[in-house]
Structures are given as structure tokens and as C-alpha cells.
Design brief:
This protein is α+β, with helices and mostly antiparallel strands. The protein is built from 8 helices and 34 strands. α5 links the parallel β7 and β8.
Length: about 675
């Protein structure tokens, strides 16, 4: 099976997109339920405007030491974003520019194969394609159609199921030579809705599928039948499109059937804008960033940026859904004619290639079909920047945890998004420990939801009137996530603390592309290195608490200072003469007497009082160390309460105390 005949792909797509453009140029809005133009509706519509900023989320746990991670470019084939290549059975899907998505069409008659029963389905054609793409580690984006002008490869051009024969009137689109069923026929509508329900029951949430385009209607399943469309006043062609009310039934059938898998429909105003009130439905711009006509006008950017009246984003602005990306994906196809040179003038465009960076930023593009990407160099800096900008680009810039821990301990991370869109799926995020050989010896699932990490900056539409173009607005935040992990049973020793967002496709294919963060510590196996952690065994090990941790309390002249020889590279100095340091959130385990070691630095003999909680303060003497950046230790037995609410205060009311690096509790 082949989605497209290789020699005919570009021509067919070009014709398809041109047909859309011609039809939309005449009619920039869809028809009403009665089949008449809805110009009044468009005239009354308005841009949605600046989207509300999401809540910033919780602050980092102040009791946890901070570990700074180093940023690095994310890989080009992160899953569910970037370019999609076309499915061809038996072909190596991992050639050409790195990618993690495969695109395919399917004729409806290939699944509805029984000529006497419209509720009988053979899903083998779809399963074969999904399985093969999964074997390469790729998810699939797909669409079903009934009318396909030209050569669809090994799929049927006429894909109207024969179970409709005798029940549905068929018309001929003489411009394209296709059979166009009566989309308003009740028997056909019931058959389509039954198919969608069965499709969803079998495949909603299937890890092999990334995105589903609501096809079925019109030429190529693209929700137009040009020239047999809603514009009947300027030509002799009748309207073959369904009424908006019937089109809306198809849209609603999809959203009912697929609550988990990302859905996209061709136009913001398809079916009279039926998807405008459905936050789970994204849009699918299959003439992405192309300019056409004389003078040239963009078919993606809005009129305020030189776009045509029928451009994708103009239609979105008129429907007030230009911010739909906040809840649903934006897909489509880089216009085939420009694919070989679409990024040659990145970030701007030239000639019939529009401002590519503006197209990605304003549409908040997550993915695009781009067969021409097969010839791109993986080292092309412009293409690389564009791909990383598309969709999500997640970075963990801070990790929060105790260097030495035992029992139950808290781990936190701070994640930012430098892409143009959120991650749209609730993939499970796990924490783990790797031993010295690199083997993951223990994992813990977290409730962390990557979908809540929104882009930190968004580009404003000129239509919003908030500044000259380009204006970038603050939107999302670096978001903190924290979780408790139980180290009970972990063998005492040194480990690497790691985290991973697990691609569900990994349960099917060992080659599943891993979600990887834009961090230098990101490993190819999907695990991100957060730093070293020493683990005690069953409460008998040692826990470490840094003096400079942000949750501690410093009074008077006490101050955090750099210290090359100290743990974490810092200490707290100028203690004493009334200035104090209080360690907080110390884990006392089950309670009782614990050995507390004070790690300090001083070039002269000093003393300090040490008090656990509200207990009696004890005076401790500290011998000189080799210098102010070379720690020594003093150990004493202190009574701690059970749990993690213990405190320890160091002070000296009448003289200077030593500088404090950290304490360890065992």
C-alpha cells in the first residue's frame, strides 16, 4: 500500500491547495445550515485577543538544595512534533531529515468492505500501516477520505463504500472526475457516524496514533468540493458540500469518539465553525506558509501581515479561535511547491515562501507533512531552529533534592517550554535511580503533567493592537513539580537521580522515539540525569542538608557565601554575635537519638550553641580547619522527633561561630 504515487504527489497537492485557494478567494466564509453564505457571521466575529496567562503553579520546595542543569539543543526527532514523512509500505522510514511522525491517507471503502453491511469493518489496512510505522519508532498522523482526485497510489480513488449503493445519490465532480456522494443523505450520515464511533472505540488513545484529521468530507477528505461548493452565485456548479448542521454532526461524532487522541479539522470555519466551541479540536493548514496570486498574498498569515482574505489564520481570527493551540494541536502540510526551499531564507521568506518564523509562531505549529524534508541536511541551522521551535521544547533548568537521602525524600524539578505550543498528551513522568553501570534499579511514577508547561513567550497578532510586529508577550512560566519517593529497600551507595517522560509507544516498539529534554544531561534512552544522590538503606543511612538551602532561616549578619571546598560550592558565614542559622525540614525517621555531624570551616578556634527543635542548647567547640574553604567535622548525638519537621539552630550570643557548610544526620 502506498499513500501517494511518488511521481504525482507534488502536483496533486498543488492542485488540491490551489482548488482550496480559488474556492475560498470567492467565499471567505462557509455556508449556513441552509446552504447560504454566512458573511454576516464573519463580519460580526472578532479576534480572540491576547490569551489569559496560566497560573504560575507552586513555588519550589524551600527545604531542598538546588542543582543547576545545563541547557543543550533537543534532538530533531522528538516525538509528536516536527516533520512527518509519507507512509510507503516496506520503505525505511528513518531516512532523510530526522523525524518521528508518519503521515497516511486511507480510503473509507478499505475499511467498510462489506457491500451489504455498513456496520462491518475490516481494520487490517490501518493496523498494518500503524504497526509498520511503530516498528520504526514513529507515531502516525492520518485521514480517511471518500473522494481522491488523481493517483492515490495503492488506495482507491473512489473510496465510497458500496454499502451506500442504492441508498445514497452519487454525483460527479466533472472538474476532478470524482464520485461525490450526497453528504446530506441520512443513510450516509448514519453510516459515517457509526464508522467514527467504531473507529474511536478501537483506536482512541492508541499509542501508535499521534493525530487524526477529520477527513471523510470532500475532495481528498479536505472539507471542500471545489468548484461544487457553497459559492453557487458566481458559477453554474451546484453545491455538493453538506449543510453546516450536517457537517457539525460529523465534527461532534469525532469529538465524542476520540476524547484522548488529538483531532484536527481543515478549516476554523468548517461546518460553519462547528469546532469553534470545541476546545479539543485543532486545525490543519495544508498550504502552510505559501504565497500565491498577483500580487502575492499569504495563505497562512492573516491579512494584517499580507495574507489573503481566505488565509488560514485570517479565518481563525475571524472566528475568534486564533488561540486554539492552547488546548489542541495545529498540524497540516508545508505547501508542496515550496518544500525544497521553504527554509532557505529562514527566519524570513522569499517570493512564494512567506515569513516562515512568523507562520510557525502565530499558528503555534506542532507538526507538518513535509516530504521534501527528505533532502534537508540535518546540520542546516535554519531548519533545526524551525523544528525545535515547532510544538514543545522542554528544558529542566533546576532539580531540587538532597544529595544524600534515606526513607521518604522529596524530589523536584523546574521545567520551561521554549517552543510555540504545549505538549498535548498526558505521558507518564517517572523518577529513577541509575547505578554505576547505568542500569535503572528503581523507578517511581509521579503525577506531573507536562501539558501544563505552556510556552514562556508568544507572538502577538497585529490584530490584537498590543505593539508593533513582532511583539512577544510573556505567557507560560518555568513550572515547578515535586514528588515524594520512598528509598526504602534501595541498597546503600551512590546513584544518579534521573527522570523520564515515557512514550506509550515504548510498550509496543523497542525503537519508539523517546521524548528528550533540551538538557546536556539528556540520555538517548530517554532518562534525563538530574545529578548524583547517595542513598542510605532502610533508615540506617545518612541524610545531608546544605546550609545554603533556600528553606533555611538566616538572621542578623548571617549570609550565604561561595566556598570552593564546600558541598554545593557554598556555605553560610558571619554567624554569631547574635546572627543565627536554622536548618529546617530535617528527617528524624522514627524519632530518637541521631548522630548529627556538623561540617564547618574556620581558620581559628571558635564555638557555637547547637539546639535541636525546642530542646536545650549545647555549646560545641570547633577546632581550626586548614582554612575558610576547607571543611572539618564535629559529631554529636541529638534527640530528633519523628518525621521531617525537625529544626537545628546554630548560634553564638557573644562571639563569632564557624562558617557552616552542611549537616549530615545518621
Amino acid at each position: 500500500m502506498r499513500t501517494f504515487a511518488p511521481r504525482g504527489r507534488s502536483l496533486l497537492s498543488a492542485l488540491c491547495s490551489s482548488a482550496v485557494a480559488l474556492s475560498l478567494a470567492v467565499l471567505p466564509s462557509t455556508a449556513g445550515a441552509s446552504g447560504t453564505a454566512g458573511a454576516a457571521t464573519v463580519a460580526a466575529a472578532a479576534a480572540q485577543g491576547v490569551p489569559a496567562r496560566p497560573a504560575p503553579g507552586p513555588a519550589p520546595d524551600p527545604s531542598l538544595p538546588v542543582h543547576v542543569l545545563t541547557r543543550a539543543d533537543a534532538p530533531l526527532d522528538n516525538p509528536l512534533k516536527g516533520f512527518a514523512r509519507f507512509y510507503r509500505p516496506g520503505a525505511d522510514q528513518n531516512t532523510g531529515y530526522p523525524h518521528a511522525l508518519t503521515w497516511s491517507y486511507f480510503g473509507l471503502s478499505e475499511v467498510m468492505t462489506d457491500p451489504s453491511d455498513c456496520r462491518s469493518y475490516d481494520w487490517s489496512v490501518l493496523d498494518r500501516a500503524l504497526d509498520e510505522s511503530a516498528s520504526y519508532g514513529n507515531q502516525t498522523a492520518l485521514r480517511f477520505y471518500m473522494e481522491y482526485p488523481g493517483d492515490p497510489g495503492n488506495h482507491p480513488s473512489d473510496a465510497v463504500p458500496h454499502c451506500f449503493d442504492g441508498h445514497v445519490d452519487y454525483r460527479t465532480n466533472t472538474r476532478w472526475g470524482t464520485t461525490s456522494p450526497d453528504y446530506d443523505n441520512a443513510y450516509l450520515l448514519d453510516g459515517l457516524k457509526d464508522f467514527i464511533a467504531a473507529f474511536g472505540a478501537r483506536y482512541d488513545g492508541d499509542p501508535r496514533i499521534g493525530f487524526i484529521h477529520m477527513g471523510l468530507i470532500g475532495l481528498w477528505g479536505e472539507w471542500h468540493t471545489w468548484p461544487y461548493d457553497t459559492d453557487t452565485s458566481a458559477d453554474s456548479y451546484p453545491n455538493y458540500m453538506p449543510t453546516d448542521a450536517h457537517g457539525a454532526e460529523i465534527v461532534r461524532a469525532y469529538t465524542d469518539a476520540f476524547p484522548r487522541t488529538e483531532l484536527e479539522v481543515r478549516y476554523p470555519d468548517s461546518a460553519g465553525g462547528a469546532a469553534a466551541g470545541l476546545p479539543s479540536v485543532g486545525f490543519h493548514d495544508d498550504s502552510f506558509c505559501f504565497r500565491e496570486g498577483s500580487p502575492l498574498a499569504g495563505v497562512t498569515l492573516p491579512r494584517s501581515m499580507g495574507g489573503a482574505p481566505y488565509s488560514q489564520l485570517q479565518r481563525a481570527v475571524e472566528r475568534g479561535v486564533e488561540n486554539r493551540w492552547t488546548t489542541a494541536s495545529m498540524g497540516g502540510e508545508v505547501r508542496p511547491e515550496i518544500q525544497p526551499r521553504a527554509f532557505s531564507n529562514w527566519p524570513a521568506g522569499s517570493g512564494d515562501v512567506d515569513d516562515m518564523k512568523a507562520c510557525i509562531e502565530l499558528e503555534h505549529t506542532t507538526w507538518k507533512m513535509n516530504e521534501g524534508s527528505a533532502a534537508y541536511s540535518p546540520t542546516d541551522p535554519g531548519v533545526g531552529e524551525a523544528v525545535r521551535l515547532m510544538g514543545y521544547d522542554l528544558t529542566v533548568d533546576r532539580a531540587y533534592f538532597h544529595d544524600t537521602a534515606q526513607g521518604t525524600t522529596t524530589v523536584g524539578v523546574r521545567i520551561g517550554n521554549d517552543g510555540v505550543a504545549p505538549f498535548y498528551y498526558p505521558w507518564k513522568v517517572s523518577l529513577g535511580l541509575k547505578d554505576s553501570s547505568g542500569e535503572v534499579v528503581r523507578t517511581w511514577d509521579t503525577p506531573w503533567d507536562l501539558r501544563t508547561v505552556m510556552p514562556k513567550k508568544i507572538r502577538a497578532f497585529p490584530d490584537w493592537g498590543v505593539g508593533s510586529d513582532p511583539t512577544y508577550l510573556d505567557h507560560g512560566y518555568d513550572r515547578y513539580f515535586g514528588a515524594d519517593i520512598d528509598l526504602t529497600g534501595v541498597t546503600t551507595g551512590g546513584y544518579r537521580l534521573v527522570m523520564k517522560a515515557r512514550n506509550p509507544l515504548e510498550s509496543i516498539s523497542s525503537k519508539a522515539k523517546k521524548l528528550r529534554f533540551a538538557d546536556a544531561g539528556q540520555n538517548a534512552d530517554g532518562w534525563l540525569d538530574l545529578g548524583a544522590m547517595t542513598v542510605g538503606a532502610d533508615g540506617s543511612g545518612t541524610a545531608s542538608y546544605e546550609a545554603e538551602a533556600v528553606g533555611n532561616t538566616l538572621t542578623g549578619t548571617a549570609v550565604v557565601a561561595g566556598c570552593a571546598g564546600c558541598s554545593g560550592g557554598a556555605k553560610v558565614g558571619y554567624l554569631g554575635n547574635g546572627a543565627t542559622l536554622t536548618f529546617r525540614n530535617i528527617d528524624g525517621g522514627t524519632g530518637g537519638t541521631r548522630q548529627v555531624t556538623l561540617h564547618y570551616a574556620t581558620a581559628e578556634a571558635r564555638s557555637a550553641t547547637v539546639r535541636a527543635g525546642d530542646g536545650t542548647a549545647r555549646t560545641v567547640s570547633f577546632s581550626p580547619t586548614a582554612g575558610w574553604t576547607t571543611p572539618g567535622t564535629v559529631t554529636l548525638a541529638l534527640d530528633l522527633d519523628s518525621g521531617t519537621d525537625n529544626t537545628l539552630t546554630l548560634a553564638n550570643a557573644s562571639g563569632w561561630a564557624p562558617d557552616i557548610d552542611r549537616i549530615t544526620v545518621s
